């Protein structure tokens, strides 16, 4: 086929594909030609639009007969992953999770999808979603292309769920690296644990918001009354649903693990603080002995050895001896 290129629509880039009776017939043809095929029951059309304008939405709604509420949802950002059913089509909203180029943070790339009897329309609000991988999945299973729109939607959902799986795996590796830093006593390690644990918790919350609704979304697609998932596609959708469950369970376990890491870090910091206070208190007790002796001998009253060298050396001996005894006692009890 060669490298895919993009077709300019009313706003930015658009990509198209046409399958006729399960065979890829055309690719990246002008958007205006869709009307020649969309009414043909033997054809399946894919249209992808990136960062559409209001005129793009108007064109898509008119071309495919989309419901106004679904078009409005597609135009709004930060939709919850969901599946809405309309008389002539389905609308679903989902997210791909991408690492931030500027750091380890995870960012969610939203994609809105319209599913008609013979067309799949994807609306993206950014260009970070790698659709080439979706196209590759379609090309790797040409024998399923005859299943129509259900085949195209499976490739997209399979990519999104695998993307979630990769994201949660990356977070798991980051948590393992964080656990290795927990018991290091360097200042840099302590700061790294505190900062990384907060970032991991934030990323897990973001990932959880994306992953959890996918379980209900994919399960709803498996309903027989939708007539979207044919018998040959049923095992593939069930496989996607199984991956969704695994990602959901993994995300929940990682959230508990991050909470445990944060609590363990607080416990370790508390133990370190107690150890420091114990040592400071022990040294204060040792230092208190010379202070007490010198204070006693500093009274303005005569005492044994007053005004003699012997009294001075006796007081010094008392201070050294008592300090040494305290030091050995504290050392034996691991207080110093």
TrEMBL record:
Membrane topology type: Multi-pass membrane protein
The keyword Protein transport is annotated on this UniProt entry: no
InterPro entries associated with the record: CorA_cytoplasmic_dom, CorA_TM1_TM2, MgTranspt_CorA/ZnTranspt_ZntB
Pfam families hit by this protein: CorA
Residues spanning the membrane: 280-298, 310-330
Signal peptide: none
Primary localization: membrane
UniProt entry keywords in alphabetical sequence: Cell membrane, Coiled coil, Membrane, Transmembrane, Transmembrane helix, Transport
Subcellular location(s) per record: Cell membrane
Sections of the chain in a coiled coil: 161-188
Family under the similarity heading: Belongs to the CorA metal ion transporter (MIT) (TC 1.A.35) family.
Protein's UniProt name: Magnesium transporter CorA family protein
Organism encoding this protein: Streptacidiphilus alkalitolerans
């Amino acid at each position: 086929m060669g490298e895919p290129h993009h077709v300019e629509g009313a706003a930015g880039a658009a990509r198209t594909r046409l399958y006729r009776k399960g065979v890829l017939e055309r690719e990246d043809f002008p958007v205006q030609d869709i009307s020649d095929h969309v009414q043909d029951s033997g054809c399946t059309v894919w249209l992808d639009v990136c960062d559409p304008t209001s005129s793009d939405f108007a064109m898509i709604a008119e071309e495919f007969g989309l419901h106004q509420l679904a078009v409005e949802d597609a135009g709004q950002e930060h939709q919850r992953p969901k599946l809405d059913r309309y008389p002539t089509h389905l609308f679903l909203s989902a997210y791909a999770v991408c690492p931030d180029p500027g750091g380890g943070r995870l960012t969610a790339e939203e994609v809105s999808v319209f599913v008609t009897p013979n067309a799949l329309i994807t609306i993206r609000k950014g260009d970070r979603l790698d659709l080439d991988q979706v196209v590759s999945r379609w090309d790797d299973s040409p024998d399923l292309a005859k299943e129509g729109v259900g085949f195209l939607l499976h490739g997209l959902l399979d990519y999104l769920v695998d993307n979630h799986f990769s994201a949660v795996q990356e977070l798991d590796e980051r948590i393992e690296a964080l656990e290795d830093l927990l018991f290091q006593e360097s200042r840099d390690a302590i700061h790294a644990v505190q900062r990384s644990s907060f970032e991991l918790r934030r990323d897990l919350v973001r990932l959880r918001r994306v992953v959890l609704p996918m379980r209900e979304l994919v399960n709803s697609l498996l309903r027989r009354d939708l007539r979207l998932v044919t018998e040959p596609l049923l095992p593939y959708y069930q496989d996607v649903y199984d991956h969704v469950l695994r990602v959901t369970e993994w995300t929940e376990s990682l959230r508990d693990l991050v909470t445990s890491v944060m609590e363990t870090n607080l416990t370790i910091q508390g133990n370190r603080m107690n150890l420091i206070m114990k040592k400071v208190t022990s040294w204060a007790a040792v230092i208190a002995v010379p202070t007490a002796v010198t204070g006693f001998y500093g009274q303005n009253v005569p005492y044994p050895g007053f005004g003699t060298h012997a009294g001075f050396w006796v007081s010094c001996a008392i201070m050294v001896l008592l300090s040494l005894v305290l030091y050995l006692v504290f050392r034996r009890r691991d207080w110093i």
